[in-house]
Amino acid sequence: MPSTNEILKKFKKLKTLPHVGIKLSQLISDEDVSVQQLEEVIRLDPTLVLRLLRLVNSPYYGLREKVDSVSKAVVFIGMKHLRNMVVLNALKDIFKQSSEEGSFSRNKLWLHCAVISICSQMISERIFKKKGEDPFLCGILHDIGIIVEAQVEEELFNELIAAFKPGKKSFVEFEREIIGSDHSAIGSKLAKDWKLPPNVQEGIKNHHKVGGAITPESISGIVQMSEYFAAKIDYTMVPGVVPVLSQSLMNHIKDNLNEYKSLMKELPGEVAKAMEIYQLDDEEEAS
What confidence tens digit (pLDDT) does each residue in 94-138 have? Predict the structure, then answer.
């Protein structure tokens, strides 16, 4: 069976991730990067330019005057927002490639990740009063390892989907037995290659970890709770997957039940809003 590193090596050879996305992600991680350097790279991707200008001119920012400059747009939305948009732009088409395979749907996985990202941002900002950009990013990326598996180990992945039965063994355990690695390990290493923040890498790596003490305010804890809540409104990565929460997270939810009930009521509306702002749905780009 292939190792995590071997799977990622094959994935990189496919050149699936656009060069612009990788370059921008690496630039944004550099504290000394200039707006001019970012603009030079962004302009290489017309779709990204369109999305960036559409976002900064959306009602979300409520600017009085229209922004038609990439450099001004970057200043308005900030580095972390830009980073998240770059990752979204790079991932959207990857998730939508190929047709459905049995009970697995890339489109459903994409929607699952979108809901997790939105819920994670809400939990971070509303429950813990912290900035939500990193939890949002971790949410959108937490299952990227599944796409990597599906692309580079197609036969093994199809075997995995056919063999998976909800029950005593988790999806991750099925992955390790059939593929030789799991999407959490693969995704965290890919995030490291992209030079994304260590807390995002850690969140991807541990979002299925239930042993030990997972603190609720950590990104791992936030994403794990978001998967639990997303399943409540039928947004799962694969049909039949029932998220398991660490005991520490379950206790936290029980202690703050009213706040989480309120959050759950608002989640569908926030999902609809984010779908429009970030263009997370299936609509084609406007010409």
Answer: 776 654 555 678 888 888 998 999 999 999 999 999 999 999 999
* Residue 167, H or E segment: none
- Residue 286 in domain: no
Whether the per-residue pLDDT at 150 is higher than 80: the answer is: yes
Instruction: For residue 144, give the nearest of 187, 192, 98 by alpha carbon.
Output: 187
**How many structural domains are present in the chain?**
1
Q: Quick one: DSSP state of residue 285?
A: P
* DSSP 3-state of 101: strand
- Which of 146, 211, 201 has its CA nearest to residue 179? 146
- Dump strand ranges (E) for 117-267: none
CA-CA-CA-CA dihedral for 198, 211, 208, 250, to nearest 10? -100
Classify residue 284: in a domain, yes or no: no
- In sequence order, the 6+-apart residues with CB closer than 8 A to the CB of 120 are 132, 135, 136, 138, 139, 219, 222, 223, 226
- Where residue 71 sits, what CATH number does that domain have? 1.10.3210.10
Asked, for residue 133, whether it belongs to a domain, the answer is yes
Domain that holds residue 68: 4-278
- Residues 69 and 182: their CA atoms lie apart, in Å, by 42
Q: Considering the domain boundaries, does residue 287 fall inside one?
A: no
